[in-house]
C-alpha cells in the first residue's frame, strides 16, 4: 500500500492534543472570532435559560402546589413558557451560526489541502495512491468537520450550561452540590485513556478507508480489463475483505467511543442516590423545602446531559485530531521543485534547448540518465529514439521540471531553467503525451484547457489543424459534447487529436511530443503530421517516436541507450553509420514489410541485448 510520507497512523499520536488544537485555532478558527462571539452570546442565553428553568421549579412546588397560590400559578407558568421560547430561539441561532462557521472552516481546510496538492511535485503523485489523496481531502476533512463542530459547541453551549446549572446547585446547597459531584473526578483518567485509544483506532480506520478507496478507483478505471479477464468475482472478494476490515474497525471505534457511557451512567446514578438520600433526609427533617430540593434535583438532571456530552467530547475530539494530524502532515510536506527566491520570468528569444552533463535517477537505484549532453538549436526539430527504457521520456519530463536533475543542468537560450519561474517555464512549453488526459467536460473546454481566453475561432482552427474538426462536428452536440471521465466517450485516436489541438492552441515556442500520433490511424496520422510540421516551423520541437518513419525528416536525431546518447545526427548519416539506429530502422522496416500494406504501427519491441549483439 502506498502512503503519504509521514502519515502512517503510527505517527498520528506524535503531536499532543494541545499542539494540534492550538494549530487548528491559529490557522483556521481565529479568523472567525467575531462570529464565535455572536454564537457565544446566544450560548450564554441558552445556559441562563436552562438554569432559570431549574430555579423556577422551586416556586412551582412551594408556591403553586404546596401553598396553592393562584396568582403565582399564572406568573410562574408565564415565566416558564417565556424561558422555553427564549431558550429555543437562542439555541436555533447558535446552531445556525456555529454550523456556518464549521462549514467555512472545513471548506478552508479542503481548499488549502487541494491547493497544496496542486503544487506538489510529480514524484509525490507517483509515490502516493489516488485513493489516499481522495481519502485525505474527503474523509479526513469530514472527520475534522464533526470534531470541530462538536468541540466548539461542547466547549461553548454545554460548558456554559453546565456552569450555570452547577451555579444553581451551589446556590441551593453547596454541601449537597459537593456530595453530588465528588465521584466525577475519578472518571478523568479512564476518559483520557479512551481518547488516546480513540485517536489510534481512528488512524487505523482512515488508513483502511484509503486502501478501499484506492481499490475502488483502480477497479473502476480498469473495468474494461476486469471484464476482459473475467475477474469480477476476484475483485468482489478483494473489495469484500477491505470492506469487512473497515466495518470491523468501525465497530471497534464505536466500542471505544462508547466506553465512556457506562462510566458516566454509573457515576450519574451514584450522584442521584447521594442527592436523594441526603436531600430527602433534609426535607423530612424540615431543613429544606420540597420545592428547593426538587429544584436542586432538576438542576442536577439537566446538568447530567451536557456533562455526558463534555465527557464524550474527548473521544470525538481525538477522532478528529487523528484526521487533523494526517492533514497537517500532508500540508507540512513541502514541494522540492519550487521557484528560487531570485527566480525571474523566462523570456524565450530564440528557443534553444540544451542538456549539459545531465544525470537523473527516479530512485536511489539505477540511473535513468547518465551524463546526457544534447543541444536542440532554436527552431529545429530533434527526435529521441531508442528502445523502451532508454530514457527518452525522462528527458521530456526534465525540461518542464516535472522532476529535478540530480546532476548537470538544462538551459533554454543559455538560461538555467532553475533560475526562472516554473509558471513562465511551463507557459512556454506545449506537451502532447502518449498518455492522453481529457477532463469530464466539453470538447471545447478540453481544447481550451490552459488557454481560457481563446476565442471560438481559435479553438476551431486548432481542432482543424489537428484533424479533429470533422469528427467533432459529426457528434450530436459538436464542440459542446461531454467527453466523459478521461475522455471515455471518444475513441483513442479522437482523444489524441483533441490533445494535439490543445497543444496547438497554446502556441508555445517549445514543443514536446511524446508519441503524439501513436493512437492515430494512417490517414489521420498523415493529416496530423502535416499539421505538426506546419506548427513546428520556427519553433523548437523535441519528438519521441517509436515509428521511425515519422521522424526521418528531423533536423537531428539522438539515439539513446541505457540512459546515454550513443549516436546523433540526421537520418541518412545515422543509416550510413550502421550503428544502433541503423539496426532499429532495419528491424522496423522488415517488420513493416511483412505486415499488412496499411499497417505501419510496428513498435520497437525487440530485446535490447539482441539488438546490441546483432551489431
**How widely separated are the two ends?**
43 Å
Number of domains: 2
Strand order of the largest sheet: 6-7-8-3-9-10
Q: CATH homologous superfamily of the largest domain - what is it?
A: ABC transporter type 1, transmembrane domain
Estimated helix fraction: 55-70%
Could you say which overall geometry the principal axes of the C-alpha atoms support?
elongated
CATH class of the largest domain: Mainly Alpha
DSSP, total strands:
10
Strand percentage lies at 5-15%
Helical stretch count? Answer: 21
Condensed summary:
The protein has 615 residues and is of the alpha/beta class. The chain has helices at residues 17-29, 33-66, 70-118, 122-127, 130-172, 174-181, 188-221, 223-228, 232-258, 260-285, 290-331, 392-398, 422-427, 443-447, 456-465, 469-474, 492-506, 522-536, 571-577, 580-594, 608-614; strands at 353-360, 369-376, 381-386, 407-412, 415-416, 429-432, 510-514, 540-544, 556-561, 564-569.
Describe this protein's structure.
The structure is a single chain. The chain has 615 residues and is of the alpha/beta class. The protein folds into 2 domains: 9-331, ABC transporter transmembrane region fold (Up-down Bundle), CATH 1.20.1560; 353-428 and 512-520 and 542-615, 3-Layer(aba) Sandwich (Rossmann fold), CATH 3.40.50.300. Helices cover 62% and strands 9% of the residues. It has 21 helices and 10 strands. The protein has a 6-stranded mixed beta sheet with strand order 6-7-8-3-9-10, sandwiched between helices. α1 packs across α11, α2 (33-66) runs parallel beside α5 (130-172) and α19 (571-577) packs across α20. The two termini are 43 Å apart. Residues 1-14 and 596-615 have low confidence and may be disordered.
Amino acid at each position: 500500500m502506498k502512503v503519504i510520507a509521514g502519515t502512517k497512523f503510527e505517527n498520528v499520536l506524535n503531536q499532543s492534543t494541545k499542539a494540534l488544537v492550538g494549530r487548528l485555532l491559529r490557522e483556521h478558527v481565529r479568523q472567525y472570532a467575531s462570529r464565535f462571539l455572536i454564537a457565544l452570546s446566544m450560548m450564554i442565553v441558552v445556559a441562563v435559560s436552562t438554569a432559570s428553568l431549574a430555579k423556577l421549579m422551586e416556586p412551582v412546588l412551594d408556591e403553586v402546589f404546596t401553598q396553592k397560590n393562584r396568582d403565582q400559578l399564572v406568573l410562574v407558568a408565564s415565566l416558564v413558557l417565556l424561558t422555553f421560547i427564549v431558550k429555543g430561539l437562542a439555541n436555533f441561532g447558535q446552531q445556525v451560526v456555529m454550523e456556518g462557521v464549521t462549514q467555512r472552516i472545513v471548506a478552508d481546510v479542503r481548499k488549502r489541502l487541494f491547493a497544496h496538492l496542486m503544487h506538489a511535485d510529480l514524484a509525490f503523485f507517483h509515490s502516493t495512491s489516488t485513493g489516499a489523496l481522495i481519502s485525505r481531502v474527503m474523509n479526513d476533512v469530514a472527520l475534522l468537520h464533526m470534531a470541530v463542530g462538536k468541540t466548539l459547541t461542547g466547549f461553548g453551549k454545554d460548558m456554559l450550561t453546565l456552569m450555570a446549572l452547577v451555579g444553581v446547585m451551589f446556590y441551593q446547597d453547596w454541601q449537597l452540590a459537593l456530595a453530588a459531584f465528588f465521584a466525577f473526578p475519578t472518571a478523568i483518567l479512564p476518559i483520557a485513556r479512551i481518547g488516546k485509544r480513540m485517536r489510534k483506532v481512528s488512524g487505523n480506520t482512515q488508513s483502511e478507508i484509503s486502501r478501499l478507496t484506492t481499490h475502488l478507483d483502480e477497479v473502476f478505471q480498469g473495468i474494461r480489463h476486469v471484464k476482459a479477464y473475467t475477474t469480477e468475482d476476484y475483485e468482489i472478494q478483494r473489495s469484500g475483505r477491505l470492506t469487512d476490515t473497515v466495518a470491523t474497525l468501525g465497530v471497534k471505534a464505536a466500542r471505544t467511543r462508547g466506553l465512556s457511557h457506562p462510566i458516566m451512567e454509573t457515576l450519574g446514578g451514584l450522584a442521584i442516590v447521594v442527592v436523594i438520600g441526603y436531600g430527602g433526609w433534609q426535607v423530612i427533617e424540615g431543613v429544606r423545602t420540597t420545592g428547593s430540593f426538587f429544584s436542586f434535583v432538576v438542576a442536577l438532571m439537566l446538568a447530567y446531559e451536557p456533562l455526558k456530552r463534555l465527557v464524550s467530547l474527548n473521544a470525538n475530539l481525538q477522532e478528529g485530531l487523528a484526521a487533523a494530524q494526517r492533514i497537517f502532515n500532508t500540508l507540512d510536506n513541502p514541494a522540492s521543485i519550487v521557484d528560487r527566491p531570485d527566480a525571474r520570468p523566462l523570456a524565450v528569444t530564440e528557443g534553444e534547448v540544451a542538456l549539459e552533463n545531465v544525470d537523473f535517477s527516479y530512485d536511489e537505484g539505477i540511473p535513468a540518465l547518465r551524463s546526457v549532453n544534447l543541444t536542440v538549436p532554436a527552431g529545429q526539430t530533434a527526435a529521441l529514439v531508442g528502445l523502451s527504457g532508454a530514457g527518452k521520456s525522462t528527458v521530456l519530463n526534465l525540461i518542464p521540471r516535472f522532476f529535478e536533475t540530480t546532476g548537470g543542468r538544462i538551459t533554454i537560450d543559455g538560461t538555467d531553467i532553475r533560475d526562472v519561474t516554473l509558471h513562465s517555464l511551463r507557459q512556454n512549453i506545449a506537451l502532447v503525451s502518449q498518455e492522453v488526459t481529457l477532463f469530464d467536460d466539453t470538447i471545447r473546454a478540453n481544447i481550451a484547457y490552459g488557454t481560457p481566453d481563446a476565442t471560438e475561432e481559435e479553438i476551431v482552427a486548432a481542432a482543424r489543424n489537428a484533424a479533429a474538426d470533422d469528427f467533432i462536428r459529426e457528434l450530436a452536440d459538436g464542440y459542446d459534447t461531454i467527453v466523459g471521465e478521461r475522455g471515455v466517450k471518444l475513441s483513442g485516436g479522437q482523444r489524441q487529436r483533441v490533445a494535439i489541438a490543445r497543444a496547438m492552441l497554446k502556441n508555445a515556442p517549445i514543443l514536446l511530443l511524446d508519441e503524439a500520433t501513436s493512437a492515430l490511424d494512417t490517414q489521420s496520422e498523415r493529416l496530423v503530421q502535416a499539421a505538426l510540421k506546419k506548427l513546428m516551423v520556427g519553433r523548437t520541437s523535441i519528438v519521441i517516436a517509436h515509428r521511425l518513419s515519422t521522424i526521418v525528416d528531423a533536423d537531428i536525431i539522438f539515439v539513446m541507450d541505457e540512459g546515454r546518447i550513443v549516436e546523433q545526427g540526421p537520418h541518412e548519416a545515422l543509416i550510413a553509420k550502421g550503428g544502433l539506429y541503423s539496426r532499429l530502422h532495419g528491424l522496423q522496416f522488415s517488420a513493416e514489410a511483412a505486415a499488412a500494406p496499411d499497417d505501419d504501427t510496428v513498435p520497437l519491441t525487440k530485446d535490447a541485448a539482441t539488438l546490441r549483439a546483432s551489431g
